[in-house]
Write a structure and sequence with these properties.
There is one protein chain. This protein has about 700 residues and is α/β, with parallel strands linked by helices. Among the domains are: about 100 residues, Nucleic acid-binding proteins (OB fold (Dihydrolipoamide Acetyltransferase, E2P), Beta Barrel), CATH 2.40.50.140; about 180 residues, 3-Layer(aba) Sandwich (Rossmann fold), CATH 3.40.50.300; about 160 residues, Rossmann fold (3-Layer(aba) Sandwich). It is globular, with a radius of gyration of 31 Å.
Length: about 700
Amino acid sequence: MTLALESPLSAVRGVGAAGERTLRAEGLATVGDLLWRLPHRYEDRSNPLRIGSLTTPDVTVTVSGRLVQLVERGARNRRMRIVEAVIDDGTGSLPVVWFNQPYLAKALPAGARVWLHGAVKVARSGWGLQLVAPEWEVEDEDGEPIHLGRIVPMYGKLGNWGGRRVRTLVARALEDLGEVEDPLAALLPAELALPPLGDALRWAHFPRPPASDAALGGLFEDLARRRTPAHRRLAFEELLALAVVLERERGRRRRQRAPACSITDGIRESARRVLPFHLTEAQRRVLAEIVADLQREFPMARLLQGDVGSGKTIVAALAALVALAAGHQVALLAPTELLAQQHHATLTRLLAPTPYRPELLIGSLPAAEKRRVRQGLEDGSGHLVVGTHALLEDAVVFGRLGLAIIDEQHRFGVAQRQAMLAKGEAPHLLVMTATPIPRSLALSLYGDLDVSVIDEMPPGRIPVRTVLRDDAARGRLAEFLRKEVAAGGQAYWVFPLIEESEKVSARAVATHVRAVRQALAGVRVEAVHGRTPAGERESVMAAFAAGEVGVLCATTVIEVGVDVPNASVMVIENAERFGLAQLHQLRGRVGRGRRRSFCVLLTGPECSDEARRRLEAVVATGDGFRIAEEDFRQRGPGELTGLRQWGRPEFLVASLWAHRRELEAARALAAAAGRRGELAALAKRVRCPGGVGPDIQAG
């Protein structure tokens, strides 16, 4: 029977009704669903070793030869059956043993030529070697091997189906698969040299060995990184599906009617009065981009990226002033009450020369104050509000919301972003992040947004000196902190955990703050973490901001939302347990004032050489974008920001790091189709299943 990608899995030989139920429970309904689930790794089992050359135990080997003996017997434990054999390849012989697999006595008749792959161990007798529980395959001159004698794909379990059974299923599906139509064949960018869909599916599961042994290492590196032409072809289709979804969203936004924001001489004069200093060239550039968006007929949707301390807030304030002067309301959504309060104080100071007075709406406000603020927003007397998730409550109604600003966007999910926009009629949207994001990741996570980058720091900012230290430096560090606090400075001491764990030997706030207090006797040391009651946490943070606390011990709760210009030292415990981008964010909490500032990366005794090399990237540069690129390269996007949090689907094949060229090409293809009005036709050509496939068809 000839199969198609749309064929049900019940049509594959050996599946049956029970097997179909098992696979469906794993989200697999068709042959295409199965073939898009690629191996998680590959093993080279193509070149068998000579048995006569095997001299050491505890190694995994592939051998090929003839079974000269094969017996099944019972063990002392009556519940266990043992199959014993001897394989001979002409250079030597090797005993083989399998446990509780009595069917092998019939599947592997004596005299058969077989391939075996498994671990060589010292024989139970203590003399010689034996092969224990190897994978096996009978040599068939009329067919290609599946499990041995080739580059072998390795699969995870599907329900109660083990990897060997899955491999057999994939091989049968590919053997019976007919000609695969490739609707994208004519659209594949020539410069990417991508194979047709059918070839890509076949080669990605069962790659062909290279012509020379010298090229084998390069092939396995490409397989591990999913950089073979087959993998890149499948990745391109997934990325194209996502690009179409994002282009569709951009088109939908352009059809909406935006609140008009014209620029007058009065607005320009207000902006001059608001500015406390001259903008950098980068700030002027991104402000011009934002203002141009605010004057268009469709809603702005723009991401403002800028490193910690680059001056995003003043740009956002000037954008808010444009919308306010045009008669619209502005809302700024922040992830924490502390950050909301700091934004409220900053905007109150900046907008003092104007008629606009920012309001604050956070969960800890008295009920009467909340009612007053909400009433002002509804009747239009409240012009600008800064708040937390309290802004998203149903009770909050805006009379004429024209601009929504979301700060530290990575702390919010896509649902909150949409809920904020639903408070108005197609309001403009500006999202800000101090987490530098590589371009390829931004194209995916923010593909429906235009991107502005402040890539210049304000003049006069003193770089933070970053050093890497181990446990032996604790005594000197304590003395340094004591002197720094005595001279008027303050310090953060950040820990990766709240409490000690039996599994993780990292230092934790609850356990080790006592040791910090002992080492810094006479210095006021306080602690906050995610489980600290909100009122207590806010009180401690406020005391630290006021200079009453010398050292603040904390978890990453202080990563966002603390602006203490007097803080001059950041100590990060077990720094090897943090991501590079997170370390850079934490470092950005110091160096905000006139004091020379320091960041000390403390490593634990279990810090590996590889982890130390990672940390040296943070020591070497203060450029957040360079650090983000390195973090993204090492850890991937999922750990950097979390694709699920953004409402973006997870890819089956594509990697935003490995497939950058494919992503750029997919975006260009979707954008061109959008300009020609052919986006719907392009969507119908995409056939990948998984998260992106259904999304593209659902639109």
